[in-house]
Amino acid sequence: MITDESRLRDFPSLAEKTYLNTAAEGIPPRSVLDALHQYATDIELGYDGRARHDVQWSQAKAQVAGAYGLTPDEVTICSCSSEAYNMAAMALHLQAGDEVVINDLDFPAGATPWLSPTCPATVKVWRHRVGKLHVDDLVPLLSTRTRLVTTSLVSFLNGFRVSLKPMVEMIRKNSSALIAVDVTQALGRIPLQLDDVDLIISSTHKWILASHGGGLVAIPADKAEAWTTHAGGWFNQQNAFDADRFERAINKPGAGSFTPGMPNYPAVYAINAGLNYITSVGVSAIDAHCRPLVDACYDGLRKMPVQMMTSDNPDERAGIIAFQYPDAESVFQKLHAQNIHMHHHAGRLRVAIHGYNTAADIDKFLKAIHALIAS
Domain end: 242, 261, 279, which one? Predict the structure, then answer.
């Protein structure tokens, strides 16, 4: 696990602050910064640096495949999760009468492509009850016309963790819909079991401690045809430089079709290093370290006059705790002045706890917010 010594070595900026905002931005370890420097060194070689970029690309894909439980041929890296979802919308060729199910705990990237005026499908919303998505509430939304059900594994809004296996079983029982899962708020923080999921997406600048500019996409080989997008480009083409390239465009199948142009190699270097760091520590070890910290933080906040938004069931939590307080903006600003970093939006305060956080971080946060509320 991350020790006091390795924490200060790998995350020197954390010596000066209490950082509880990984759900918005992760703090990269020194190895990720070194990887970005290595990219700068490699790009100085000009075209000769391409071979080094290709090595990083292959290694990063292998890292993503390992994290998702798939093969490197079933994954790709595009520019961000929003691009991935728009490519997915293009691949499905939705028609009038088709239906898509989203939910009201999800991040806009996974919901807005289907709400666009150019999308002919009917959108149904799986609505939460007291911050939780109940699988039984999904059943009335499913039909023979349901083409897609999309959700985040862990909600950015309140940290609710979907019970994935029961959800997948319910969808398979009541429809032939494809299932897309965004693991942005889970990847690198909790062990993943993504069996029988048709599309997996994640951003890269949060819990895997990499950089902006990446979208990690995975499509199992047996679902490649359903998800092949016919976007123009060259990196996603099978015949980009063949003799017939001006007569027809043949896209790579499945995940390969989601990266239309030159990969964002600086992000690729960072992704490779970030996932390597997470793997070296171990996601199970990270989760085991964080669980008591999350529970202590939740229990401490629950004793205060705040409105908890996160589930009281530990199995429905990952790394995020969210709550509401009438004077949230003032509390947020005063905590920030004490170098305690968390997230605030529209009266909602959000804490995110990762492997580099400590019991001292949680204790300092709880004591500070208690003093502010008491005053």
Answer: 279
Percent pLDDT > 70 in the chain is 100
Q: Of 54, 38, 343, which Cα lies nearest the Cα of 185?
A: 343
> Where among 224, 248, 279 does a domain terminate?
279
Residue 274 shares a structural domain with residue 323: no
Mean pLDDT for the stretch of residues 15-24: 97
Give me the amino acid identity at 260: P
Q: Edge-to-edge strand order for the sheet containing 75-78? A: 75-78, 215-218, 199-203, 178-182, 146-152, 99-103, 122-126
What is the distance in angstroms between the CA of the first residue and the CA of the last residue of the chain?
Answer: 38
Would you state the structure tokens that stand for residue 180, as one six-digit string?
């897309």
How many folded domains does the chain comprise? 2
DSSP H or E run through 61: helix 50-68
260 and 127 in one domain?
yes
Residue 320 belongs to domain spanning = 4-20+282-368
Is residue 144 within 8 A of residue 115, CB to CB? The reply is: no
Looking at the fold, whether 304 and 240 belong to one and the same domain comes out as no
* pLDDT (0 to 100) of residue 183: 98
pTM, entire model: 0.97
pLDDT tens sequence across 129-147: 999 999 999 999 999 999 9
Q: How much is the pLDDT for 156? A: 98
Q: Which helix (H) or strand (E) holds 138?
A: helix 135-138
Vertex 109, ends 240 and 160: CA angle to 5°? 135
Q: Let me know whether 231 and 336 are in one domain.
A: no
- H helix or E strand, kind and range, residue 323: strand 320-324
- Please tell me the distance from the alpha carbon of residue 184 to that of residue 176, in angstroms, as a whole number: 25
CA distance 133 to 313: 13
Q: Which residues contact 122 (CB under 8 A, 6 or more apart)?
A: 97, 98, 99, 100, 145
pLDDT over 90 (residue 1): no
